[in-house]
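From the pipeline queue, job 12 of 40. The input is one protein chain; the requested action is below.

Action: predict structure.
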Amino acid sequence: MTTSITSSINKSVNNKSNKPLVIKIGGAILEKKDALADLLKIIASLKNQPVVLVHGGGCVVDEVLSQAGFITDKKHGLRVTPKEQMSLIAGALAGSVNKAIVATAASLKLQAVGLSLIDGGMVSCRLSDKNLGMVGEPSAHNSKLLDTLLDANFLPIVSSIGSLANGELVNVNADDAAVAICKLLNAELLLLTDVNGVKDANGDYIVSLNKAQANLLIQQGVIAGGMTAKVNAALHAASQLRRSIAVASWQSPEKIINLIKGDAIGTRIQPH
């Protein structure tokens, strides 16, 4: 990180309110340690900007399940979670993946704290009605723990494992988890993926996308697989928060600086 970039970051942040920024990362970035470190270095440079990192880890979960003899099943890009797989998934996401991110952050002198959606009652979950097994639909519940950590300049790193009212663990789509945390904190939301945004039928990146346009692209199969879930989560977030949501690439983490400054990055998912 050069001095000029760091100065630019600090200047832009100091000119903004301290509204938290929720950044969601998926499993792909975890396969490239340098990419994760680069992202965390940018976060470390945002001295006055509260940040919450929400993560999934599908690639790690797939590997763990495969080693245990399970086959991964997905519907419309969403993981099906049979009850017998839940302990392995929770161990991977809330355990090894979460602590690996915390350890990388700690090596960069960040005050990182590893959490799940359960901790502090921050997010409540009900069982999804999409026939996905032990998959939870999250709702913002109690911000006290995150408020306390952010006020003390900690970096909360939250895994997408939640629980039902009866105490059963559930797997939560990480995009939906990030939306719930964003609502909890009235924060800005950045969904990081391995591409620079959402593409149209010609393969060009779309600068701005509303619900009607997105639904048409989904019907046409232009938006498919995991991107469908990501776009739907962003549409839901934009609708609930009544503002646009950024979908951008973790391969260019320095663009987060532009987001803080209010510039457009990636694809902006609009609330209407």
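Job complete. The domain at 18-269 is CATH 3.40.1160.10 (Carbamate kinase).
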